[in-house]
Each structure stands twice: as C-alpha cells, then as structure tokens.
Specification:
Elements: H1 22-30, H2 37-52, H3 60-84, H4 86-89, H5 99-102, H6 107-126, H7 130-137, H8 140-152, H9 156-164, H10 166-176, H11 181-202, H12 206-212, H13 217-221, H14 225-247, H15 251-254, H16 258-270, H17 276-284, H18 286-303
C-alpha cells in the first residue's frame, strides 16, 4: 500500500516571489502574494456590484482601485489570520510552512506588515464615494471575527461568505448609492457561491481539521459534500438570476448567466472529494467563474 500524497504547502516560492530577496520573500508569502486566487475571489464580487449597477466601463478607475484594494486587504487579512492561527497552522501539514507558524517571521514583524498593508487599503478607501467608504468600513467586524469561527462553528465557510461577498455591496454603493432587492439577491447569491467553493477548498484539510478539532463545512457534510456544493452553487445561480431579474425582468437577460452555470455544473459533476489536488484545482477554477458572472452583470448593467 502506498502512502497518501502530502497536500501541497499553502505558501510556495514560485513565480515572481522566487526572485525576491530572501527576507522580502517571507513577507510576500505571508500576504499570499504567491497565490493570487484569493484576491481574485475577493475582487470579483466588487466587480459584480459595480457592473450590475451600470458603472462599467465608465468608472474603470473605480474598478482598478477596487482591484488594488482586494490585493492589499486580502494580504492584510491573511497576515491577521496567520497571527491568530499560528498555533493551529503549525499542527496542519498544509499550513505548517506559513511564515509565522514556521518562525520565519515574528509576530511583531507581522503586525508591522499588517499595519503597512492597511495603510495602502486606507489610500484605496479614500478614492471611493462617501457611502461606499462607510459600507467598506462596516465589514471590519466581520473580518476581525472570521479566524475564530472555525473554533466555534462547523460552518466557518458561511462567515467567509459574508466577508468575501461584501465587495458586492461596496461596488454597488459606489455607483447606485442605496441598496434594493437587486443588491440583496446579488449579495445572497455571492455568499452561496463562496460557501460552495470554500467547501471544496476545505476538502484538502478534512483529516487535519479533525485531528486539531476545528470545524468546516466539508467535515459537516461528510459523504454528502458533492450534494452540498451543488446546493450552494444552485442557490448562487438563483440569487444572481433574481438580481438580474430585478434590474431587467426579461427571460433573455438570464441567458447571460448560462456560461457561469455550465462551468459550476462541471465543477460539481467532476469533483473528486477524496483527491486534494482535484479539490485545489476546482477551487482555483472559480477565478474563471467570477469572470463569467462579472461578464453577465456587465451585459445586464449596460442594457438597463
């Protein structure tokens, strides 16, 4: 019998990161600059809200600022998460090489790096309209609480959904001002999408999570994980469809979601829950899902 393959490390020296000086490299890895999938997934909901509200392409400058904000604040979130989770990370094979858990970066140095990233985020915040600034600031409590959710609930992915979908509220408010049914359905649909793809991501850590005693939707669903992901993706598509319908009550408008729907169905049908490499690949493919949904919201937003 051959031993199971070890999961890929969470931080890897690859791409441009490999060319950085050794001292800088640890900080880049701490902010997960080597793994852009995270900031893409944080950015796309911003794009959803901006596009559905009709702000693209005229306000491409806001789209660019939101992208920079997603990169820096995702990095800041990772640093904060690693400071809180340093002891847990050291006990999980995939995360044991993270800079704080491995001792490559001290807690004090990580706190300084966190402050620097937040300063960049503050510059981005200053570029937004006042209402969008207030909406963005309202997410701080959710972000601060997230690292503790896996210690007290089996569904930390739901909390992550609240956090990673918040950009839809920011993008919409930057263009349309106040909310409404379309924004509500857009936000709820995006939450369901996040829960679905992060459940797939959590499949990599099911055994280690059980050993250290932390919860995840992948553990909660057990053998029904494929059905659970399908339900989440179905709810996501339903929420997005209702958001579009609120903006343009025309069955033809819903066709804009068809490419995203096909892509998500393909993820569910081909998902191999026991294969960590497949789970990681499926999770990363949601960068493309985000692009497809953004395109749908752009088409509808431009046609209203």
């Amino acid at each position: 019998m051959t031993a199971a393959a070890a999961p890929p490390p969470d931080s890897q020296h690859r791409g441009l990161i490999a060319f950085l000086p050794h001292r800088w490299r640890a900080y880049a890895l701490l902010a997960r600059f080597d793994r852009p999938i995270g900031w893409w997934l944080l950015f796309w909901p911003c794009g959803f809200g901006l596009a559905l509200a009709g702000g693209v392409p005229e306000r491409w400058d806001l789209l660019a600022w939101l992208l920079l904000g997603a990169i820096t604040m995702r990095g800041a979130g990772c640093v904060y998460n690693d400071i809180i989770d340093r002891d847990l990370d050291a006990r999980v094979a995939r995360t044991a090489t993270r800079p704080i858990a491995s001792g490559a970066v001290s807690r004090r140095a990580a706190a300084v790096w966190l402050f620097a990233l937040c300063l960049i985020g503050l510059v981005v915040l200053w570029q937004l309209p006042r209402l969008a600034q207030l909406v963005a600031l309202a997410s701080i409590a959710l972000v601060a609480a997230y690292p503790f959710m896996k210690r007290i609930t089996w569904w930390p992915q739901l909390w992550l959904g609240l956090v990673f979908s918040w950009g839809a509220l920011v993008g919409w408010s930057a263009i349309a001002g106040g909310g409404g049914p379309a924004l509500m359905w857009l936000y709820l649909g995006t939450i369901a999408w996040v829960v679905g793809y992060d459940t797939i991501y959590a499949l990599q850590d099911v055994e280690d999570d059980a050993l250290v005693g932390i919860g995840s939707s992948a553990r909660a669903l057990g053998t029904k994980v494929r059905a659970g992901v399908a339900l989440c993706y179905g709810a996501a598509l339903g929420g997005w469809a209702l958001a579009i319908w609120q903006m343009r009550p025309d069955p033809l408008a819903l066709i804009a979601l068809l490419p995203a729907a096909i892509h998500l169905v393909g993820q569910v049908v081909t998902l191999a829950p026991s294969d960590g490499d497949d789970a990681l690949a499926k999770f990363r493919s949601n960068r493309f899902t985000g692009l497809l949904v953004f395109a749908a919201m752009l088409v509808v937003g431009r046609s209203v």
